Amino acid sequence: MVNWIAGINVPTKLAILYALLLSSVLALIIYVVETIQKLWTVQHKIMQSQKMETVSQLAASISHEVRNPLTSVKGFMQLLQETTLTNNQKNYLEISISELDRAVKVIEDYLTFANPKACSAVKELDVQEEINRVVKVLRPLANKNSVRLELSTSSIHILANQQYFNQCLINICKNAIESMEEHAHGALTIKTEKAKNDIIIRFIDTGIGMSKEEIARLGEPYYSTKGKNGTGLGMMFVFNCIKEMGGTIHVESKKGHGTTFIMRLPIQYRTNSKETDHAS
Ligand code: ADP
Ligand code: MG
Predict the structure, then answer these.
(1) Would the CB of 208 count as within 6 Å of ligand 1?
(2) pTM assigned to the model
(3) Mean pLDDT for the stretch of residues 189-195
(4) Which residue in 106, 234, 218, 100 sits closest to 161, CA to CA?
(5) Is pLDDT at 110 greater than 80 in this prediction?
């Protein structure tokens, strides 16, 4: 090239040597950069797994300590059930006991959610029924925070572990309700819709919203902006679980303008019954 452009006569040997040197230096630089990148990724992964390990160990000790008091509370509630009660009171007790059962189960299985078998024991679930169940449980919290709950769901089936799926819904909805504590007219809307072979569940709140940095940190173990009132484990559970169910979860949010969680899961088509859609 030098020969051709500037008319300087460069010996062929020198030119070849120069070209070889240039390409090997370039290759070396690329190799070093790639290696540094790889090391960085591995280091990040190791840190994440160390965090997960700590969470699992913590969960193991908590589960041991918390299960016994829960069992005795359940015993006393069952004794209460045998006394004369109004229908409403019986209903509340029933819900409380079933929630206690779930708490015990979640605690028992809490240790396993870090491993790939977490979503075992799956069965066919009607998303509408599960949402209704969760809404029933969360209504007292919503009332306390003056949050309106609005549903627009239809009967669509998925394959999931019921307890884990319920926990995911509760974690998302609880965060939404908690984000509207300071708002006078907060509303949480849950909508389901079909998109080809997937169900899309949207959780739309009118709460405090999140900045881009906050969204990026969602799902990190112990990440919480609620101080003593938060554990920072709720979203981690949700992200892990949805991923294992073969689904995805996206967040759209703007500080001060509310948040929308968009969950996408594969539909389980029923083989022997007709599918019906009911909007509620
Ligand atoms: P915790 O609720 O115990 O703080 P989570 O893992 O459930 O932990 O949530 C982590 C953080 O994500 C919360 O502290 C909050 O800052 C943020 N967050 C989650 N959902 C919402 C929401 N709907 N609106 C605003 N912030 C949210
Ligand atoms: Mg939470």
Answers:
(1) yes
(2) 0.66
(3) 96
(4) 106
(5) no
